[in-house]
Amino acid sequence: MNAPARVLVSGTGLIGTSVALALRGKGTEVFLSDADPATAKLAADLGAGVLVPDLRDAKGIADIAVLAMPPALVGRELAFVQECAVADVYTDVASVKVLPARQARELGCDLESFVPGHPLAGREKHGPGAAQSDLFLGRTWALCPLPETSADAVSAVTALAAGCGADPVVTDPETHDRWVALVSHAPHLVAAAMAARLAPSGVPADALKLAGGGLRDVTRIAAGDSALWTQILSANAGPVAEVVAAVAEDLAAVARLLARQPQGTPGAGTGVAAVTVLLDRGRAGTSRIPGKHGGQPRNFTVVQVVIADQPGELSRLFTAAGAAGVNIEDVRLEHSPGLPVGVAELSVRPDQAGTLLDAMEAGGWPVRR
Amino acid sequence: MNAPARVLVSGTGLIGTSVALALRGKGTEVFLSDADPATAKLAADLGAGVLVPDLRDAKGIADIAVLAMPPALVGRELAFVQECAVADVYTDVASVKVLPARQARELGCDLESFVPGHPLAGREKHGPGAAQSDLFLGRTWALCPLPETSADAVSAVTALAAGCGADPVVTDPETHDRWVALVSHAPHLVAAAMAARLAPSGVPADALKLAGGGLRDVTRIAAGDSALWTQILSANAGPVAEVVAAVAEDLAAVARLLARQPQGTPGAGTGVAAVTVLLDRGRAGTSRIPGKHGGQPRNFTVVQVVIADQPGELSRLFTAAGAAGVNIEDVRLEHSPGLPVGVAELSVRPDQAGTLLDAMEAGGWPVRR
């Protein structure tokens, strides 16, 4: 499966320009267009491809046209570029799929040549200046063909996604939108609702001193841009509402049961059994989230090491681990509020934990076995 | 404020033995007792202190007695050790405070000498073998005096907490329990309720391929032990129920508004404004969570570096950072499912970001500015 020979990227923001850069690296001839000429020029200056000043003069210029713009703009752009006949196959990269597919249908676009797509990659920065040729490396790229979409079109876009280094997964727009509601959009709202409880009124700063890493983890994504997330959530409103309503219902039920629990009888009562059931379901859910390298979640052993908070300390640590031939699969620093020490939690393959512990001890670190 | 001269630790599990080890390091004479003689002996063998076979023969043995056992057992043990008159001052380390304080009162304990306490530290392992002298280093240690508690008793336990390297924070039992409900217990349930949506029925494995780091963060703590967390949640049922009910209500309200949102009109409608309000409250909440070194949350600049997933790679990276005099405040590895590369996100002080980027580039890493 070779990367396509000629690709037009319409919309040279972060995603579009990253697609262009990735494909250029594979020898693809790339053409660039953007509603904002300065944005397109910046992408071209970055080496992403050749400018196309007017798509109406670009008939047959590409094998595939990639429409890289917000969901609500995809339908109209598809109608336009198909009218210009710029390519044989068309795809988009918007983060929801039902909305653009429906608009394309309503606008009478040719659906046989259209493969709705969504690369699961992004950055906090925007614009062509933030683009990276390796943005899609190892990421999932969802392809959501419509009933009308031809098999040849799907093959072509699959090759494009693979050419960008991504892992193509085929589904349909409705399923895609339910999936991203579940694994991305609803979790954002849940994190925000928990974090909203920490807002200043009624919660003194001392309360937050009792917070640990758990709270930070749960609420981290709630720090994201509210306006951007409002757009995302409302463009996938139905599926998000379904997941969030179910979460709210589970939480409300547990809250009712706990409220009835007599304060002095921990562990007793029927309400408590229901709490355990929800916690067990939660454990089952977390175990399904793919770990590093995708596929089956892998179990790593966590080795804890106390480290001084000074330049070079992590360097010494990782040098010792590397010298012992141990690959650190993940690392987290546990913060020690108030004191200049921390605990590094190093995840390694279980069969390497002993080697790492020995190496750390030999290096003089207080190791926690 | 000196560490106490003589301390009795009753209950030589993880926390009790860690207190003993920490105080021994400060020159405190430590005595050990446990309902299970083998557990007490193991703690003594680990150098945590001197065994006291029978507390009835230990009148006046200590300045402070530390009761390190589950919340529901504290009241009875306090009544017993006060009857034996083993110490002048008493404290406990249980993770909720209203329940043991009430039981102590009901059992007619002397409350003038009792300072309910809670060190915010723990590990996933249990027992004296998992104990660490540095477990409390830089952690918050809540002290929750009752109306009857004497100022001298509070001073003594404050010195004990400080002697363990912790940061003492004084409040009262009711406030403490509301605070931990907010920053620890409720977030656990919220994470579990989100993760429960990922359980196998109806969610194919492909859906999880669309998951990113956000979902992993939100649900991480839901992997904890269900039985243990059921105990914790039911021992603090009222305050937990209050927070969880409020979160559920916010989520249900947003779900209702989103469900009414016409699918084709992203960004429009009054429901959307309410979503933004919740997201904004969430952002305000996350900004209050203390960062490293406690106190005011600090803003770090995140520098992204693409790294190969092989032994020694992180070592080279941190060596380069250390050589440039840059202190890495936090590090996260972004997983790349399916491919042996990753992105290291290094948090540094904003004024050091440029230096780090230069050092990374000089070292040959593809840097993301």
List the helices and strands and how they pair.
2 copies of one chain form a homodimer.
Chain A: E1 6-10, H1 14-24, E2 29-33, H2 37-45, E3 50-51, E4 62-67, H3 71-84, E5 87-92, H4 98-106, E6 114-115, E7 117-119, E8 140-143, H5 151-163, E9 167-170, H6 173-196, H7 205-208, H8 213-219, H9 226-235, H10 237-260, H11 270-286, E10 301-308, H12 313-323, E11 330-334, E12 341-348, H13 353-362, E13 367-368
Parallel strand pairs in A: 1-2, 1-4, 2-3, 4-5, 5-6, 8-9
Antiparallel strand pairs in A: 7-8, 10-12, 10-13, 11-12
Helix pairs in contact in A: 3-4, 6-10, 10-11
Defining key terms:
13 helices, four-stranded antiparallel beta sheet, 6-phosphogluconate dehydrogenase C-terminal fold, six-stranded parallel beta sheet, 44% helix, globular, homodimer
